[in-house]
Structures are given as structure tokens and as C-alpha cells.
Design a protein that fits this description.
By secondary structure, the chain is α/β, with parallel strands linked by helices. Helix content is 38%, strand content 17%. The protein has one domain: Alpha-Beta Barrel (TIM Barrel). The protein contains 17 helices and 17 strands. Residues 56-437 form the Amidohydrolase-related domain.
Length: 507
């Protein structure tokens, strides 16, 4: 048996009903928290971490990210989602990265996450053109070697691109439309068989630290047959059903245009709303949508920074919480955010809600933001009984921060310091599943210098090739701009929170 004692720290448990920090100790045995209290005697042979002057708290949870974007950090700006997708996820000329770079790309995300206090992430890994078990295995390998906890998808879509967008068939020229329509999607049966192989070979690796999740890209990008089949599979295996819904105003137009109702109502009519559903973004939801979401017990991954960078809007987090929707925080991919730091998302998520209305009662407190970054994020991963708070019996996923750093001086309120002042630079020690993966800001699981040097040497040719791919896809930009222009011209602003959507044309 292995034991670890954190002694004399300020402890912020984030357990429900507990607020503020208190001085105490925490004993970990065989990867699980055994007890939290004061004056705990260390068992024979226990490793001791001196916590004096440190804050002990749960590791942060990144509820939504995309490792496939990691090498595109700092590459794009001033692009709405529908245009940005042309370059970050190009239609033409895109090829999978070499296996070694696939591994390094994922490892870099894991390293940055751990160094900024993230102990668990949900990676909506998406790679065109197909689904390859060995390549998905490299993603699992990278997270395994880094020592982080992760839910990992092999995201899927099977609807032609133009059929998932409003106005597209009347805007995009026939020759380009024919090229886009040449895409051959995987069949529902073939993808289900692939997923079962993943569950057999990869799911539950590393003592259960690495899990597979089902991630149909979005309801408008997947057939009802695929959406329904994956929902049933997610329930059978007890894993999240992770999808993108109503991220942009274009998507707010898409539901009524394609289905005669909002995308949330469409999902409800398919019988897909439920506690295992995780909705990334949820920006353009109406009050009627939110009521359905709350009744069904869905969870939302709120990506405040990405939503702002892509001009998508501000999610109605107060209304979601008041309706009983569980909310976690996500960075989204490093191409639409440029950092894996959840501390950055916490600050932005707290501040931006203050711009949604004049009544301070509708703004979010530091406590609510911290809850979303820890236990709320764990709920989105269906792991709130495993991680997200410091409680006896839970996995020992925690971080220690230096309270002598400038982020905590002079000291006032621990929760407000964490949300408004901290940026991850005070994180000194990171423990996942009872194993110390970072000590004194140095990762113990990988050779950081060697990894960064290899990336610096091997990635530039890949980016040069990607620039040529971007040039091939630039031909589509004027048409995506027109789709974006028409959608944003639709007057749905007042109806956004009012309930029913206004009448739309039906294709």
C-alpha cells in the first residue's frame, strides 16, 4: 500500500455545502483520499508533502477541448466560427498528421494542462478523414504517459457539410458543392463497430484514468440514426454523450431552417436529452430550450474565451444554473482560445457575465465559477463521484498553490483570489490518481525540455504544409462569409431568452 500525507495546508475542498479554506491535513492511500482533518499521523513509509503556506484544492477540470488544434495556437483571429473552420478543420487537402506528431500534439496539451493545475480534461478529438484505432491509441498513450485524467472521443459526423448549414445550397456554386459532396461518410454500423473496438481495447486504461466518450459533432452534422445509435451506446457504457449545440447565431438559424424548431427541441423530440448529454457552448438557447435542458438534467461545457474570440456570443450561464443545468468550464481547442489554462477561462467567465445585464444578482460569484471549474466540470464528464472535490473515497486529484505568490498578497478571500488574480503560475504540485506528476513546477512524467525541443524542430514543416492547405480552402471563404452575414442579419436577438423562436423559412 502506498500512502501520501499533505500536512498543514490551507484546504479548499469544493465539496457541496463547504465554503472557504481551513487549515488541515489530507491522507491519501492507494490513489484515494482516505481522510481530511487535523493532526493526522502519517502511516509508516508514507510520503509527506509539507503544506505550510500552500493552498490544497481539487485539480481543475477542462470540460471541453480539442487536442487536434494544439499546433494552431496563435494562428487565427477575427474569424467567426464558420470561417475559422475552413482553416482549422479544412475541407480540401487536409491529411492526418504523422503518428509521432499526433502523439506530441496531444502530449503538449497534457503538459500545459497539468502545469496550469488541470488534472482532468475532456478531449473531443477529431481527425479527418476517418477513424483509426491505432491513431486514437496514440492519443490515449500521450495522456497515459503524461499522467493526466481524460475522457477521449473519436468525434464523428456523417452529413454533407452544405446540408448542415442554412442557405448553403443556394450560395455555394455547383462545382464547389460537388467537391464538398464527394465526402464519403462512415456508415452508422461501421462507426458503432469501431466504437465497440475502442471500448474493448482502450477504454478504462491506466486504472480507469482514461475513458472513451461518444461525441457526435452536432445534431445538424449527424443523421438522426447516428445520433440515436450513439446515445444508446453511451447509456449502455455509462459514458458522456458529448456534442456541440447552438454555439453561433448561424446555428440558431440552422435548427428552424432545417428542422422547423430549435436544435434543443429537435434533440428533445429525438429523445436524446438526458443526464449523460454534455452540450458544448449553449450560447443561442431560448428560455424554452433552457427549460427542456433543466428538466432533462443535461450538462453544459461553457467556453467563455473561445466564444468571445470567435464572436459567438455570451452563454446565459445564470439562466442555465437557475434551471438546474450543470455547468463546467472548457477552454475549447488551442486554435480558438490559444491557451489550455482553465484559470484564464475562470476569470473571463466571471467577468463577462457582468456585461449581460445591470442586475448584479444575475452575475456569477467566484464560488460559482470555482464550482464550474471543479465539481461542475467533473459532472460534465460523468465523474463527479470520482473527482472534482476533496472528499474521502474520491480519487486523489489535487493541486497545491504557493500562497506566498503575488496572486495571494495581500490575502483577502481565497475564492476571489483564485478566480480574479491567479493565472496558474502559483501551481507548484500536481497529483493525479494519487501520483505526483508535478513537483516544484517540474513535470515528473515526461522530459519537458526534450519534448519542447522536438516540437520546435519537427512542427514547422507541418505548418508550412498547412499553409498550402489553407490556400486551397480560401476559395470557400466568401460563401461562408455570406452564410454568416445572412444568419447574423436575422432578428432573433430579442427572442433569444424569450421562449419560442420567431417564424423561419423551412427548406
Amino acid at each position: 500500500m502506498t500512502a501520501l500525507l499533505v500536512r498543514g495546508a490551507q484546504i479548499l475542498t469544493m465539496a457541496r455545502g463547504q465554503t472557504g479554506a481551513f487549515a488541515g491535513d489530507m491522507l491519501v492511500r492507494d490513489g484515494r483520499i482516505e481522510t481530511i482533518g487535523q493532526g493526522i499521523e502519517p502511516p509508516d513509509g508514507a510520503e509527506i508533502i509539507e503544506g505550510r503556506g500552500k493552498l490544497l484544492m481539487p485539480g481543475l477540470v477542462n470540460a471541453h477541448t480539442h487536442s487536434s488544434e494544439t499546433f494552431f495556437r496563435g494562428r487565427y483571429e477575427k474569424m467567426p466560427l464558420e470561417i475559422w473552420l475552413l482553416y482549422a478543420y479544412p475541407f480540401f487537402g487536409n491529411r492526418p498528421v504523422p503518428p509521432r506528431l499526433l502523439y506530441l500534439r496531444t502530449l503538449l496539451l497534457a503538459m500545459e494542462s497539468l502545469k496550469s493545475g488541470v488534472t482532468m480534461l475532456s478531449d473531443d478529438f477529431f481527425e479527418t478523414p476517418g477513424h483509426d484505432l491505432d491513431r486514437l491509441g496514440l492519443v490515449f498513450d500521450a495522456y497515459d504517459h503524461a499522467g493526466i485524467r481524460a475522457n477521449i472521443s473519436s468525434a464523428v459526423m456523417n452529413v454533407p457539410a452544405l446540408d448542415a448549414l442554412p442557405y448553403a445550397r443556394e450560395i455555394v456554386p455547383r462545382d464547389l458543392a460537388a467537391r464538398l459532396d464527394a465526402f464519403t461518410p462512415i456508415s452508422v454500423q461501421a462507426y458503432l463497430e469501431f466504437c465497440e473496438r475502442v471500448f474493448s481495447r482502450l477504454h478504462g486504461r491506466a486504472n480507469g484514468r482514461l475513458r472513451f466518450m461518444l461525441a457526435p459533432s452536432a445534431p445538424q452534422r449527424c443523421t438522426p440514426e447516428l445520433m440515436t445509435a450513439l446515445h444508446a451506446l453511451s447509456r449502455r457504457h455509462g459514458v458522456p454523450y458529448h456534442t456541440h449545440v447552438l454555439e453561433t447565431k448561424t446555428q440558431a438559424v440552422t435548427g428552424p431552417d432545417l428542422y422547423g424548431r430549435s436544435l434543443i427541441h429537435y434533440l428533445a423530440d429525438l429523445g436524446l436529452l438526458g443526464p449523460n448529454m454534455v452540450i458544448a457552448h449553449s450560447v443561442w438557447v431560448s428560455d424554452a430550450d433552457i427549460a427542456l435542458m433543466g428538466e432533462a438534467g443535461v450538462a453544459v461545457a461553457h467556453n467563455a474565451v473561445s466564444n468571445l474570440k470567435l464572436g459567438a456570443g455570451i452563454a446565459p450561464v445564470r439562466r442555465l444554473l437557475d434551471a438546474g443545468v450543470a455547468v463546467g468550464l472548457g477552454t475549447d481547442g488551442l486554435s480558438s482560445n490559444d491557451t489550455a489554462r482553465i484559470f484564464d477561462v475562470m476569470r473571463v467567465a466571471a467577468l463577462v457575465q457582468s456585461a449581460t445585464g445591470p442586475d448584479p444578482k444575475d452575475w456569477l460569484s467566484a464560488r460559482e465559477i470555482l464550482q464550474a471549474a471543479t465539481l461542475g466540470g467533473a459532472r460534465t464528464a460523468l465523474l463527479d463521484r470520482v473527482t472534482g472535490s476533496l472528499e474521502a473515497g474520491k480519487a486523489a486529484d489535487f493541486i497545491l498553490l504557493d500562497m506566498g505568490s503575488t496572486s495571494f498578497l495581500p490575502f483577502n478571500d481565497v475564492e476571489k483570489h483564485l478566480v480574479y488574480a491567479e493565472n496558474g503560475g502559483s501551481v507548484e504540485t500536481v497529483v493525479v490518481d494519487g501520483k505526483i506528476v508535478m513537483r516544484d513546477r517540474k513535470l515528473l512524467t515526461v522530459d519537458e525540455d526534450a519534448v519542447l525541443a522536438e516540437i520546435a524542430e519537427t512542427v514547422p514543416p507541418l505548418l508550412a504544409e498547412h499553409a498550402r492547405v489553407e490556400a486551397q480552402n480560401r476559395v470557400l471563404e466568401p460563401f461562408m462569409q455570406e452564410i454568416h452575414r445572412r444568419a447574423t442579419a436575422q432578428d432573433i436577438g430579442m427572442q433569444r431568452y424569450a421562449g419560442d423562436m420567431p417564424p423561419w423559412r423551412h427548406g
